[in-house]
Amino acid sequence: MSTDSRITRAEAQALARAALAEQRPGRSYGLGCLKNEDRPMRAQVFCAAHPDEHLVVKVFAPGLAEKAQAQAARQRDVAAQMQDGPWRAPEVLFFDPARLVLGMVYAPGPSLAELWPRLPAAKREVPLEASGSWLAALHRPTLQTRKLRPRGQLEWLAAQLAQAHETGTAIPESESFSLRLAELEALFSETRGKPATRAVTHKDLHLSNLVSAGGALWGLDFENGELDAPYRDLVGLLIDALATCPEPDAPGFGAALARGYGDEITAPEARLFLQRAYALGTWARTPAAPSTRQRARLQAAKMILAADRPLF
């Protein structure tokens, strides 16, 4: 049984078939689930297959109407911006607001999350550099030069630490976290006002949201439409790459992402502050009893924090 914030596979399939019947009358589609977990989820994603067409159908839980509408609107904008060339986003084919069903072009290829752990060390830079280039293409239309204002990030991190102490839900290794936060606070005066950038970011980017298909790299799962720091996306990709690689290399992976991204604006002092701030953000969100995945991401964040120079 679904709740307002979760929907079962069977319920989502019924909604997907009803939406397809209206959007593609006279056609019968097979529905293959693209997520290998048969449990209630915030959204269920299917490949809808017909001899003449394959498309992706995403069905949102009933309480997520605002999220579904935001994703459909943002993906339309991004797909128009990235409709050809090597850096792409799937076109929105339809959105059914009553059923919360989003139909989009299917990119028939593996995600970087599937490819990444199996790549030999000599070839790991290639997908990371491509990911950086894809990210630059996403940010470029809205990229703005701004002075770095670090106070907000410092206050947010301090608030997470204070809340953990107040509620008794401790951040893992909170003493070490406090020391790292103090080191970041010490950078305030030398980083405040340094050149940096803002752009409409992805804000939830990881390797499973990038698909290699048809000679292009396709990004998925857009929603954010607000300006933010691009380094949130860069650090998010680096953490995912480090956490899922048998031989993590923070300087090498960061350099590959940086070559693809090509930031010529952000000052080195600002880069160092931002990579540490977003790594501490991952640490602050890690529960006291982390899962295997969360523990790997925490270790990746610590690798970034250990770097004494910008990784990007």
TrEMBL record:
Pfam families reported for this sequence: APH (PF01636)
Matches recorded under InterPro entries: Aminoglycoside_PTrfase, Kinase-like_dom_sf
GO molecular function: transferase activity
This protein's UniProt keywords: Transferase
Residue ranges of domain Aminoglycoside phosphotransferase in the record: 51-267
UniProt name for this protein: Phosphotransferase enzyme family protein
Organism: Alloyangia pacifica
